[in-house]
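Researcher: Let's do a round of design. I'm pasting the structure tokens now; please hold your answer until I've finished.
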């Protein structure tokens, strides 16, 4: 059975508690699920503690944020089956949590300045599970207050978009640094959704240098042209090919039902075996 290897829960910026996600995966006919919350090991720890729920195998995962220093762009790297006790990896997740809290609180204050009818306290119940005020939580509270009609629609772009007044960002480790963390943790590194951050050049460079294990191709925001190029890269360099929905529940810009992007069971077992062999070699 196939699996969805890219989903998010309330441990980061998803709207669905992690214990509900396996039931959604089961209803979608999936046999595997990776809850890959942003820069936190809580979802990976949950998967290790609950290896199977609702007949679905849970894959420990985390989606790590990085910076492509050559082009000055963001990049996301999915890490599967990491050692959650790895000090460098835990240290980076702790660093990112502090960065996100600081940026989130500044975003909340700036949002209240731009929209005086908004009280940042309204968003607090929404981000208690993650301990981090993500933009999705702020916009969800705006929707509840009738000050926006969607999470990532026109109002979001007006406030947080390229030409908007609110820009508070985090300091990310370089792509090379994040890949080193994944290696230290014995995990498997997959470059996430290269189309999202104009990452096709980065994908080609990392693949040619043998620095990634795979690329996420079956993702709703990858363009058809990029998917075709990624398949060629994967074939040329022997990369794992993964897929996932990037599920965020109702905190999503477009409809992304669980299972609309998938990874084959054969590939999942290859990822698991690779991670196991790396831990045995440590």
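Researcher: That's everything. Go ahead.
Model: Designed sequence:
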């Amino acid at each position: 059975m196939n699996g969805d290897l890219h989903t998010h829960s309330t441990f980061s910026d998803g709207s669905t508690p992690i214990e509900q996600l396996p039931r959604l995966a089961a209803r979608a006919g999936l046999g595997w699920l990776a809850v890959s919350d942003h820069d936190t090991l809580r979802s990976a720890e949950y998967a290790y503690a609950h290896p199977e729920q609702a007949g679905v195998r849970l894959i420990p995962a985390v989606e790590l944020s990085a910076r492509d220093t050559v082009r000055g762009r963001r990049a996301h790297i999915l890490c599967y089956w990491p050692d959650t006790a790895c000090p460098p990896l835990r240290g980076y997740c702790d660093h990112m949590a502090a960065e996100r809290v600081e940026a989130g609180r500044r975003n909340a204050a700036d949002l209240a300045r731009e929209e005086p009818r908004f009280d940042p306290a309204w968003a607090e119940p929404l981000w208690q599970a993650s301990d981090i005020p993500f933009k999705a939580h702020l916009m969800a509270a705006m929707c509840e207050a009738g000050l926006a009609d969607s999470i990532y629609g026109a109002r979001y772009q007006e406030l947080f978009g390229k030409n908007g007044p609110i820009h508070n960002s985090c300091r990310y480790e370089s792509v090379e640094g994040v890949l080193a963390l994944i290696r230290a943790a014995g995990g498997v590194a997959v470059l996430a959704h290269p189309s999202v951050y104009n990452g096709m050049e980065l994908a080609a460079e990392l693949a040619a240098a043998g620095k990634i294990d795979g690329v996420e191709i079956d993702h709703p925001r990858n363009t058809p042209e990029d998917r075709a190029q990624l398949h060629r890269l994967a074939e040329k360099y022997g990369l794992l090919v993964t897929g996932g929905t990037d599920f965020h529940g109702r905190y999503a810009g477009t409809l992304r039902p669980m299972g609309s992007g998938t990874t084959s069971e054969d590939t999942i077992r290859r990822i698991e075996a690779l991670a196991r062999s790396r831990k045995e070699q440590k």
